[in-house]
Amino acid sequence: HVDYDAISMLNVSATQALSKRLTIVRDSVQYLNHALKDSVQSLHQALKDSVQYLNRALKDSVNYLNAKMATLELVNIKNHATDSLRMNEQQRAIAELKNLLMEMKKGKQNVLSSKKVK
User: Fold this and answer.
1) Cα 81 → chain centroid
2) In terms of DSSP H, where are the helices of the chain?
3) What is the largest distance, in Å, between two alpha-carbon atoms of the chain?
4) CA 27 → CA 22, 33, 39, distances in Å?
5) What pLDDT is attached to residue 107?
6) pLDDT at res. 9
7) Spatial separation of the C-alpha atoms in residues 62 and 60, rounded to whole Å
8) What is the spatial distance between Cα 102 and Cα 29, in angstroms, rounded to a whole number?
9) How many Cα atoms are found within 13 Å in the side-chain-facing hemisphere of 25?
10) Least enclosed by CB within 10 Å: which of 38, 51, 82, 116?
11) What is the pLDDT of residues 30-83, one digit of tens each?
12) Residue 117 has what pLDDT?
């Protein structure tokens, strides 16, 4: 003899248990989806902030290097001008020494000539 009432009650109990499990699984999936969405948004914001920070740091570094380069160019120009002035001074000094040497040679020749005349 089959007890249809008992089978029916077991069916209802099993269906209710499955329904509760399904609800738990749905809630878990929904929670995990929200958690994943929040994590992705947090990661996206962190990445965006990092890129902005790196862009600012790169811009600051480029500005710093440009300023250093401009300073070095000014120092180079100043050194070149100083070197040019030194070279001009050296050339003048050499020319004066040559003139003195020529005058000394002339003076020596004059002294020798005057000794020959005597």
Assistant:
1) 33
2) 4-117
3) 171
4) 8, 10, 18
5) 81
6) 95
7) 5
8) 106
9) 6
10) 116
11) 999 999 999 999 999 999 999 999 999 999 999 999 999 999 999 999 988 888
12) 57
